[in-house]
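Thread amino acids onto this structure.
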């Protein structure tokens, strides 16, 4: 076995060793349950430092490929991780059964456009007769390009924002690569990076986006990509300003390793975001892939997101899809085109955007009056500081209120505990909820004496 591993290693760096062992695991040459040679024996066989092998083993363990069992040794694990171990699963594992579930991060169903009118208007037109037609309806592509924050070299449509990020990750990230992410970050992205064996490197942020100084320092690790949410950041609600985007682009352009970084932007809130659409691609179009989702603004069942950026990258995504789903339904694309151009729907989405803003403002005002620290700059989520995450969640659950724990969003611990609340689902009863939240958060507050019975569930 020692010779098998040594023979598979072409690059004797930690990343190269981890990649070689990962290939052996996936091909079955190192089956599940196999006990690996010791770090020292591998190092001796390869003629390198044991520290390098230890680093490779840590990367493999983080990716879930191997597991060290103390003195018993290090073993190959069964591929895949149980769902309950995913960060994403930890967000909504318990709250769904509660009367008031504000853990989900989904839009208010009643604020979404009715798709029936669009379906009637597109009729029974035949949108494709060939597998070889372009993946995007020409008129939809034209409308999307008009809305894009920079002129993309190429644009395609996929089955939602996470599908887009998954496909971009497959094209850009390799095992052992360092990828820069916001801290806090969206848990499914962290799960995705871990599943491909990438190392997530946290970059601090504030209300205007990533901090330029933090980005500059993080570039020293030689990252392959930078993942960020330009608007309505989930969970904090922060939106990147044009000034901040320009400064971040300058940091990337001015750093010796910045030119090799692909920026992946997830504009998941889309048309319900209050902030202006902005992208680092306005300054670095060759290094930026921008994803625009329509799930929160026009309906999750549309399952559509657009991806635009450098031709080589977008073409690689589109070509790889030809070996799988081929293309996203052109019928659904026609529905989306209708919704984006129908004046009544445009007004309805605009009204939803204003309603979400009003709900954020009402909840923030109520919490501020009770000395609870919270941020909700845009979108449908609110990031609330609490004295103890578990205590807060248990306290809220006792009132029938479900929220998401903050820990799964953190790449590394922040300066205190948090919870995430989908404030976009809270339709009224802001003072009632603020009283309960203040108590759960451990903040000083004034009790109104009202109960949660006036809260209306916004998840249906």
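Threaded sequence (460 positions):
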């Amino acid at each position: 076995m020692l010779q098998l591993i040594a023979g598979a290693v072409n690059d004797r760096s930690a990343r190269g060793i981890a990649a070689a062992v990962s290939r052996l695991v996936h091909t079955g040459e190192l089956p599940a349950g196999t006990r690996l040679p010791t770090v020292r024996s591998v190092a001796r066989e390869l003629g390198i430092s044991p520290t390098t092998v230890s680093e490779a083993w840590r990367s493999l363990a983080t990716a879930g490929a191997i597991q060290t069992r103390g003195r018993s040794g290090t073993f190959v694990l069964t591929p895949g991780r149980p769902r309950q171990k995913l960060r994403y699963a930890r967000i909504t594992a318990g709250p769904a059964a509660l009367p008031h579930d504000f853990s989900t991060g989904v839009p208010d169903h009643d604020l979404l456009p009715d798709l029936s009118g669009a379906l009637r208007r597109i009729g029974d037109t035949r949108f494709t007769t060939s597998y070889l037609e372009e993946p995007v309806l020409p008129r939809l592509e034209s409308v999307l390009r008009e809305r894009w924050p920079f002129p993309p070299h190429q644009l395609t449509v996929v089955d939602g924002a996470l599908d887009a990020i998954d496909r971009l990750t497959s094209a850009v990230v390799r095992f052992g690569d360092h990828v820069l992410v916001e801290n806090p970050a969206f848990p499914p992205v962290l799960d995705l990076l871990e599943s491909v064996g990438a190392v997530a490197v946290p970059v601090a942020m504030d209300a205007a986006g990533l901090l330029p100084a933090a980005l500059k320092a993080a570039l020293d690790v030689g990252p392959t990509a930078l993942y960020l949410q330009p608007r309505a950041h989930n969970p904090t609600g922060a939106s990147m300003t044009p000034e901040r985007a320009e400064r971040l682009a300058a940091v990337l352009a001015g750093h010796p390793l910045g030119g090799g970084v692909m920026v992946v932007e997830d504009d998941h809130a889309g048309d319900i975001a209050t902030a202006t659409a902005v992208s680092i691609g306005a300054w670095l179009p060759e290094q930026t892939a921008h994803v625009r989702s329509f799930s929160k603004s026009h309906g999750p069942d549309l399952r559509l997101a657009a991806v635009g950026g450098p031709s080589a990258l977008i073409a690689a995504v589109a070509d790889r899809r030809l070996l799988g789903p081929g293309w996203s339904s052109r019928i659904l694309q026609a529905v989306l085109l209708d919704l984006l151009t129908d004046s009544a729907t445009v007004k309805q989405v605009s009204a939803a955007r204003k309603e979400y803003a009003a709900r954020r403002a009402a909840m923030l005002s109520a919490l501020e009056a009770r000395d609870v620290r919270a941020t909700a700059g845009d979108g449908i989520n609110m990031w609330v500081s609490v004295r103890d995450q578990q205590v807060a969640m248990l306290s809220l659950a006792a009132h029938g209120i479900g929220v998401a724990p903050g820990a799964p969003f953190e790449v590394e611990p922040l300066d205190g505990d948090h919870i995430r609340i989908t404030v976009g689902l809270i339709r009224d009863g802001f003072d009632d909820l603020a009283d309960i939240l203040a108590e759960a958060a451990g903040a000083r507050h004034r009790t109104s004496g009202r109960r949660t019975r006036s809260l209306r569930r916004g998840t249906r």
